[in-house]
Every structure is written in C-alpha cells, then in structure tokens.
Amino acid sequence: DFSVEGQTHVLVYTQSSLVEQTTPVGSAFNDSIAVVRNVSFTDLDLDSYELGGNVTWEDPPLWQRPDLV
C-alpha cells in the first residue's frame, strides 16, 4: 500500500537483457476498490526467475463498479 494523494497517472518502463524501452506507457488511474472473481495467471516460463503470461479475471457486476456508480 502507498499513498496516491495528488497523483493521477502511472508510467511503466520495461527492460530486458535485449533492449530497454525508452518511451514509457502511461495510464491514468483512480484510487477505488472493486472485487473481481476467477483471477487466473499461467506462467509461460520464458526464462528462469522471470514471469510472463496473461492475467485474466471476471469483472464485477455493474452495480459494484466504482467507475460506473
């Protein structure tokens, strides 16, 4: 947990042994809570000590989504 007071965006840079991404990907965020179900992650085992794969989940019902209330 950390404070996001006054913060509106997050930037993500990626790096690997092959290349470093010099242009970050940014996204706006809000500090809200919703419960998701059926979270799933299957590691593709790309390299030892690294994770790779898709994370999927089932969205909460519309009445529970803070961005739609």
From TrEMBL:
Origin superkingdom: Eukaryota
Protein name: Uncharacterized protein
Organism of this sequence: Symbiodinium pilosum
